[in-house]
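Quick note —
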Amino acid sequence: MSHLDKFAPDTLSVAEYEHWIVTVRGKQVTAGDLVVLPRVPYERFVEIQPAAAIELVSVLGRVEGVALGPLRADRVNIVAAMMKDPFVHFHFFPRFDGAVDRFGDRWIDEDWPRAITLRDVDTSPEVLAQVRGFYAEQLGSSD
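Predicted structure written out below.
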């Protein structure tokens, strides 16, 4: 079993790069949550090779640009908890100061203005598909 399997890149991937894969987070806490995953399961940050580190900055910048631009988020939180899944990866949360209508649903950022709380949220396959389509289009995926 690959370290990526839990994140369902076959069905939730929105962009793939040489060292990193961006997927929709299957449990949307806020509208448009993503996970940035390494192709190699690094256990510690110090293991990340320079080329992968440089690419990570670029990938996070692109994702942040989409969240703050077309998605119209007020801020973003990037969390590297690495507890349940003990390898380097990043949960990306667009943050909204107030209720927003996105992806066919109304979203309220219950944690605003505090740091995001990682929690399991039932998210319909339809919403996940809309989030995936939005980011794939914005990040230039060919899917």
